[in-house]
Amino acid sequence: MSLIVFDIGNTNITFGSFNGRKLDFYQSIPTQKAKSDFSIILSSLKKNKIKQVDGIVISSVVPPLDRYFKEFFQKHLSKNLLFVNYKNSGLKVLYRNPREIGADRIANAVAGYEIYKRPLIIIDFGTAITFDCVDSSGRYLGGIILPGIRISAQALAEKTAKLPYVEVSEPESLIGRSTKECISSGIYYGTIGAVKEIIFYLKKQMGKGVMVIATGGDAGMFMKRIPEIKKNIPKITLYGLKIIWEKNRDTSHFSCSESDQ
């Protein structure tokens, strides 16, 4: 029996299938593309020969899509559907308003602690760059959010008259010799500086023994420049979803979207 997992993000939807403890396959598609044609997802599942489905677990930070996913999969697969939130995660959350925490951040924290059983800073380099802090007891302490590289590039292009939009990548030289090179270098090295500084102060506040791990589509771009990050785990969100599913197999938390909680 297979467990289908979905991480619905602002930029991409990443999904895959677990057979037991093994992640059989996973792929990402642009969120905008999925919005217009849900059949792409179903076709991919069929292509990967996903037949016997035990259930479906979803983390979503795009509430308008929750209802469509719920209706689509209940119609086509008629299986138990679990939308992850702070209540069903099994995570003790110290946030003032736990409803505000993105389900992907919850899944990352659950998986990170399950793997390492120690204090963690989990950095997700996605549309936004998020820092999630977990203590030695596995409690979710809170975190930090700052703009991702594309948001930064988009803001410069939209809020200025002459600056173009730039696809940020690691520059050949720190000093740019064109406007595009200057923007790319500024965002790239500015992100490195911000992340390193935040790690320093988080470690200072959290105490000894804190491990820093990363995930997200842009993590690989920064790993070699930020030695404080010890591990890049691209699929950690999907593993977190599986862990949360296992905790809820025999409960009544199914078929509720995050917005229903």
How would you explain this protein's 3D organization?
- This protein has helices at residues 31-36, 39-47, 63-76, 103-116, 149-159, 179-206, 219-222, 236-248; strands at residues 2-8, 12-19, 22-30, 53-60, 81-83, 120-125, 128-134, 140-147, 211-215, 231-232.
- The protein folds into two domains: 2-86 and 240-260, Nucleotidyltransferase, domain 5 (2-Layer Sandwich); 117-234, Nucleotidyltransferase, domain 5, CATH 3.30.420.
- The two termini are 28 Å apart.
- By secondary structure, the chain is of the alpha/beta class.
- The strands form two sheets. A five-stranded mixed beta sheet has the order 3-2-1-4-5, sandwiched between helices.
- Strand 7 and strand 8 (140-147) form a beta hairpin.
Spatial separation of the terminal alpha carbons: 28 Å
CATH class of the largest domain: Alpha Beta
Structural class: alpha/beta
Q: Which homologous superfamily in CATH is the superfamily of the largest domain?
A: ATPase, nucleotide binding domain
For the largest sheet, list the strands in their spatial order.
3-2-1-4-5
CATH architectural category of the largest domain: 2-Layer Sandwich
Please, what is the average pLDDT?
90
